[in-house]
Amino acid sequence: MDQASATRRSPRIRTWFETHFSSQRQEGEGILADISYTGARIEDVELQPKVGAHTILYVSLPNQDKPFQLEGKVARHTAGGFAIAYEKPGPELRRGVDRVATLVDASKSAELDAASSLDTDDSADALDEAPQVLDARSDKRQAPQTKPGSDPLDDMDTAIRFEESKPEPAKEPAEKKSAPKPSAERHSDAPASVRVARRAQDLDLADYPLPELESLRKRIGDEIEKRRVAAKERVRREIEKLAESEGFTIDEIVHSKDTDKR
Fold first, then answer.
1. Which domain holds residue 248?
2. Please, which of 20, 30, 74, 134 could form a disulfide with 58 given CB 3.0 to 4.6 Å?
């Protein structure tokens, strides 16, 4: 089997690893473009060794301490590089090529996963934007056009129906207004005199007939008298209690006041 037939049967693996090469006291750098079990191609070089020259490639692989070494003769030149054919292909070289292929496949899988993730994010963004797009499309209804020679009254009627068919914008919920407090609650914090005045203002006497007003006046007078008596009794008890705390009786306090006046 000639070398050309072997090369055709050996699949090429496209790569992009940085490579250093050495050939007959010449050294350079490039990119490993592809590799197979029979040879390799390096591109993006500044110098091209002579065809037939013995050349060693030092390929830098990810997460590898030492470069992967390939050795052979320059088989041909390319537009920006050259290709070599291995001089001594064997099991060790095949394992090295397989390791390169594994790294390439792993890198491609990582790129596909990243692309899939981006597509998923884009789809999620599109779903989020879909309601807005639909809303925008639903608002883009064409208004009826006036036809030449049509009746202005008919056109006006059509325009009115179009405006009435527009969906109403969503109304924002109105703030809850607190119900007015009952009269008793509004007056509870005020002084007694103020509460009485406010209650008198709330009372509309104009709605009462005269007999009821007369009865109300009598009830008010009786209530005033009753409260005066109760107030006097409360004051008397307080004075009596205060006098006892000082060692006096209420009669002594009252008589002492009368003596002082004389």
1. 208-262
2. 20
